[in-house]
């Protein structure tokens, strides 16, 4: 292979340290004009993932006219390993294949692609590891940015859907589209719908993309080209009637009952209310201040939600005896409500309610977000205009019209009643 900038180049080859003849041939190979970049002292009967040994050899001067042919045969029969030395002098190794898995040209292409990844503009130090390690780096990044709750949620998802799956053990820099696509298909097993799988996939994409920005060497096309399931953004269909809401609260333990009651009076996202402090509740003005992070950059958005007289009474009970900086709603141990634990407690409350009265609550779909969906639907049914509902719920009119159009009153209908058509 001719190097445009200089002599012929041999990227990788190997031999047995006990074969002195091979040492002499290497020296002859170099004298023939080949630039030897890397070689290993192991045979192909060892695993291709071994840690290579790079001794400082004394190479003899014996010339061998058959060297190119014999060295190519040797290179085809053993593990091929590439070595890269960065500016600090640190060396990194990559096993490229063994037992004839790739020929010399293929090994050259693989090594040069790896060198390109290591030398592309970006962080000074290239990081390596598995997909699970890259996801953990993303969670730590969220913590550094002050998003502890988001980091905790991300770790929970990664533990459930990545670390326990074969995907988590794949080396990040060799991750392929097929790997991510197969993982997405495995998510569909069980009762997970396409919308749930799309949310999990979006979380993984965000983590892996951030990992590349943090210095992990990887091919972003491997996950960016995996498309979400189409037509999976349907509205949440679980609507809880007044009787069902009461049955759920009655079957809940005190701490959960207080938290769910707060969701009923505010229509808040579960995470927003879980993050609320006592100081956020203004009994005099009759409102609660909620904060959320939405969109790229994690900008904090703040809104004030008005409370009815009954809502103020419920929030006063939740704040009683607590300091201004204390969490407004807590689990039995005093920690704020966490998504996974909340879901577990809600499922237990649903089971208890249905055990007390068969069919009291739907067997599936009852969650904290179902309460939010129910409250927004009730607000719109009561005649509150969509703009006001969007403001109180911390969402947009686009989302209200997309998911709750059937609850919006159409003023055109009243005008149509006044038109005499027949």
What does this structure look like?
It is a single chain. The chain is mostly helical. The protein is built from 17 helices and 9 strands. A 3-stranded antiparallel beta sheet has the order 7-8-9. Helix 4 (131-144) runs antiparallel to helix 5 and helix 15 (386-393) packs across helix 16. The longest helix is centred in the middle third of the chain and has 20 residues, at 194-213. The chain starts with 7 loop residues before the first strand and ends in a 5-residue tail after the last helix.
Shape type: elongated
Rg (C-alpha, Å)? 31 Å
Query: In percent, how much strand structure appears in the residues?
Result: 5-15%
DSSP summary: helix tally: 17
Helical content band: 40-55%
Uncertain stretches: 1-9, 11-18, 37-65
Characterize the biggest β-sheet.
3 strands, antiparallel
Instruction: Trace the largest sheet across and list its strands.
Output: 7-8-9
Class from secondary-structure proportions: mainly alpha
Average pLDDT over all residues? 77
> What gap, in angstroms, lies between the N and C termini?
88 Å
What is the H/E string?
Answer: EEHEEHEEHHHHHHHHHEEEHHHHHH
- Total E-strand runs: 9
């Amino acid at each position: 292979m001719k190097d445009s900038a200089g002599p012929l180049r041999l990227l990788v080859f190997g031999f047995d340290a006990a074969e002195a003849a091979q040492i002499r041939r290497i020296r002859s190979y170099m004298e023939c004009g080949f630039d030897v970049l890397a070689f290993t002292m192991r045979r192909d009967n060892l695993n291709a993932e071994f840690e290579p040994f790079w001794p400082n050899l004394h190479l003899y001067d014996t010339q061998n006219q058959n060297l190119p042919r014999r060295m190519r045969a040797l290179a085809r029969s053993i593990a091929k390993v590439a070595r890269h030395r960065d500016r600090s002098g640190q060396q990194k190794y990559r096993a490229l294949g063994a037992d004839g898995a790739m020929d010399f040209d293929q090994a050259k292409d693989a090594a040069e692609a790896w060198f390109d990844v290591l030398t592309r503009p970006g962080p000074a130090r290239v990081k390596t590891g598995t997909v699970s390690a890259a996801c953990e780096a993303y969670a730590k990044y969220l913590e550094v940015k002050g998003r502890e709750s988001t980091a905790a949620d991300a770790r929970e998802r990664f533990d459930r859907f990545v670390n326990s799956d074969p995907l988590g053990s794949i080396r990040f820099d060799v991750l392929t589209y097929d790997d991510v696509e197969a993982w997405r298909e495995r998510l569909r097993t069980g009762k997970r719908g396409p919308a749930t799988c799309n949310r999990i996939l979006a979380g993984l994409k965000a983590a892996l993309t951030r990992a590349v920005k943090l210095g992990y060497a990887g091919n972003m096309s491997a996950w960016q080209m995996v498309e979400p399931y189409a037509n999976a953004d349907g509205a949440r269909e679980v609507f809880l009637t007044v009787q069902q809401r009461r049955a759920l609260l009655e079957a809940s333990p005190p701490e959960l009952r207080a938290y769910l009651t707060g969701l009923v009076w505010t229509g808040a996202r579960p995470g927003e209310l879980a993050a609320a402090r006592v100081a956020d509740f203004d009994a005099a003005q009759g409102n609660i201040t909620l904060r959320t992070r939405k969109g790229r950059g994690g900008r904090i958005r703040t809104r004030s939600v008005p409370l009815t007289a009954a809502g103020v009474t419920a929030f006063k009970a939740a704040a009683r005896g607590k300091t201004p900086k204390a969490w407004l709603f807590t689990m039995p141990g005093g920690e704020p409500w966490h998504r996974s634990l909340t879901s577990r407690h809600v499922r237990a409350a649903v089971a208890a309610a249905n055990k007390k009265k068969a069919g009291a609550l739907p067997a599936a779909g009852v969650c904290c977000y179902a309460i939010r969906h129910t409250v927004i639907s009730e607000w719109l049914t009561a005649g509150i205009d969509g703009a006001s509902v969007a403001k109180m719920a911390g969402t947009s009119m686009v989302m209200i019209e997309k998911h709750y159009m059937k609850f919006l009153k159409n003023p055109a209908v009243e005008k149509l009643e006044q038109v005499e058509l027949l």
